[in-house]
Amino acid sequence: LLLIVEHGHEYHSLLAGMARLDVHVGDVVVAGQTIGSIAGSETMPARLYLELRHNGRPVNPLPWLAAREDKVRG
Q: What is the DSSP letter of 32?
């Protein structure tokens, strides 16, 4: 399963490795909302692939993931 989230200003995030998606094409999502789940087992840990793109090109997501006071924590 692949989820693509449009953030505006030509930014998109791609998330893969989900076992279930709880959102559909055209849904609006907000910070802190559950969008799906990942699953793992004793032999295969859960993994989530995250890619951030700007104008269709991959960019470093670390500045977006940096800790901020206004960031939602799960």
A: T
3-state secondary structure 5-73: EEEECCEEEEEECCCEECCCCCCCCCCCCCCEECCCCCCCCCCCEEEEEECCEEECCHHHHCCCCCCCC
Phi, psi of 47 (to 5 degrees): -135, 140
**How do residues 3-38 score in pLDDT, each as one tens digit?**
999 999 999 999 999 999 999 999 999 989 999 999
Q: What is the reported pTM?
A: 0.76
Contact 14, 21 (CB under 8 A): no
